[in-house]
């Protein structure tokens, strides 16, 4: 495991090892203990797309591990325009100990990894968001939820977060249902890869069918960054896929609600559900910090 570009770079043992390491690191922070295994080490943060959670959690993660992070915006480095991706990877490898990149195209990550001699972490691409998926299932795992056999219903767009969840749920035994409007389903190749990993997944266009008896309801924005020009089309296509009190009643009486944030309140989810007693959304957000510490430490070889 030299890079984390995709959940498919992991196996079940990697996942559980990172979960356990994350739990240890989180407990020490909560106890006020200072842990500095990455003292003197630096992580470069390449951001073609801005983010609240991703930037703050990676920067704070490095501080809490005793290291440092260097933030590089799209304007600062002009990746692929001002300077080629291979040249950026080769230069950064001489200066830093790892690279976390939040990019438009997954191909950019693959090119960085081919030419870097330090670990590269996918901090989001158009194809996957592995750090988010790891934080999500870790959030359930730390609550004592048995992942194997859990029924997780995804309501909404067949996007990058769903792709990573499909792969991770396959590795951990979580059964998935995905309710997506026609034309917005996961790619057939993604579903095939998920099932090849042992995943159990059912795709439907009916949100209520997916929610029926589910242990977890998960949703995400209908209009992601870069899709603003599709707003009216998407709002029309997704209008029957809102996670609200009515849909929640179809799920298990103890069902939990998840959202990777940011949320477009009143669109994909209502205030009552997002802020309600079933929501573990802020736990997910907090755990982006802790799981990314586990991932960085695991890749560093010092865990």
What does this structure look like?
The protein is of the alpha/beta class. The chain folds into two domains: 7-129 and 288-300, 3-Layer(aba) Sandwich (Rossmann fold), CATH 3.40.50; 144-279, Aspartate/ornithine carbamoyltransferase (Rossmann fold), CATH 3.40.50. It is built from 13 helices and nine strands. The protein has helices at residues 12-30, 53-64, 74-77, 85-95, 106-115, 130-142, 160-172, 188-196, 207-211, 231-238, 245-248, 271-274, 281-300; strands spanning 42-47, 68-73, 98-102, 120-124, 151-155, 175-179, 200-204, 216-219, 256-259. It has a five-stranded parallel beta sheet with strand order 7-6-5-8-9. The chain has a four-stranded parallel beta sheet with strand order 2-1-3-4, with helices on both faces. Helix 1 crosses helix 13, helix 2 (53-64) crosses helix 13 and helix 6 (130-142) packs across helix 7 (160-172). The two termini are 13 Å apart.
CATH architectural designation of the largest domain: 3-Layer(aba) Sandwich
**Over all CA atoms, what is the radius of gyration?**
19 Å
Kindly provide the name of the CATH class of the largest domain: Alpha Beta
Question: Tally of extended strands?
Answer: 9
Percent of residues in helices comes to: 40-55%
Termini separation:
13 Å
Overall average pLDDT = 97
Instruction: Summarize the biggest pleated sheet.
Output: 5 strands, parallel
CATH topology descriptor of the largest domain: Rossmann fold
